[in-house]
């Protein structure tokens, strides 16, 4: 009986935790063109960065469809002219920034807030960067 309960618990975790690790599903998007990725995940928070380069081009419509299929909700877009001034070290080129609600949370001043996911597609559509941070 004990093994049956463990099996049921394991199955619930495996089927109910489709979003683990946070933003990990992005490694399935255009995976042959991922040039670098970093992930530092812990029990209380973490971050992930992924970089793509595709000389044939990256379509924002494909990215937006993939994000939607994985329950990332588009909140806003804006043009980034000077990433050195406007963004942190992960975003290194001008392009269009997509801001998503990742459905994860982060802690700011002791309160839970939306953990945004950021995707930047370069103006020439040949590069894409993702940044996601969650937790404490």
Supply the key terms.
six-stranded antiparallel sheet; alpha+beta; 44% strand; 21% helix; 136 residues; 3 helices
Kindly summarize this structure in a few lines.
It contains three helices and six strands, in the order H-E-E-H-E-H-E-E-E. The protein has 136 residues and is of the alpha+beta class.
Can you describe what's shown?
The protein is an alpha+beta fold. The radius of gyration is 17 Å and the shape is globular. Helices cover 21% and strands 44% of the residues. It has one domain. The protein contains three helices and six strands; from the N terminus they run αββαβαβββ. About 10% of the residues have low confidence. It has a six-stranded antiparallel sheet, with helices on one face.
Could you name the ranges where pLDDT drops below 50 across 5 or more consecutive residues? 5-18
Count of structural domains: 1
Mind summarizing the main beta sheet?
A: 6 strands, antiparallel
Strand content: 35-45%
Radius of gyration: 17 Å
Percent range of helical residues: 10-25%
* Sheet with the most strands: spatial strand order: 1-2-6-5-4-3
Order of H and E elements: HEEHEHEEE
Could you give the distance between the termini? Answer: 38 Å
Number of strands: 6
Protein structure class: alpha+beta
Write the layout of secondary structure elements.
Elements: H1 2-16, E1 34-41, E2 45-53, H2 60-69, E3 73-80, H3 83-86, E4 95-108, E5 111-122, E6 127-135
Antiparallel strand pairs: 1-2, 2-6, 3-4, 4-5, 5-6
């Amino acid at each position: 009986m004990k093994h049956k309960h463990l099996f049921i618990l394991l199955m619930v975790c495996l089927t109910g935790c489709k979003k683990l690790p946070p933003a990990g599903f992005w490694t399935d998007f255009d995976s042959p063109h991922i040039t670098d990725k970093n992930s530092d995940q812990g029990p209380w928070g973490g971050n992930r960065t992924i970089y793509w380069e595709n000389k044939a081009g990256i379509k924002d419509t494909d990215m937006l469809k993939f994000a939607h299929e994985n329950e990332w909700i588009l909140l806003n877009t804006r043009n980034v002219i000077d990433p050195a001034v406007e963004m942190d070290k992960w975003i290194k080129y001008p392009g269009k920034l997509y801001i998503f609600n990742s459905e994860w949370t982060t802690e700011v001043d002791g309160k839970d807030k939306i953990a945004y996911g950021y995707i930047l597609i370069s103006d020439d559509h040949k590069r894409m960067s993702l940044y996601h941070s969650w937790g404490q």
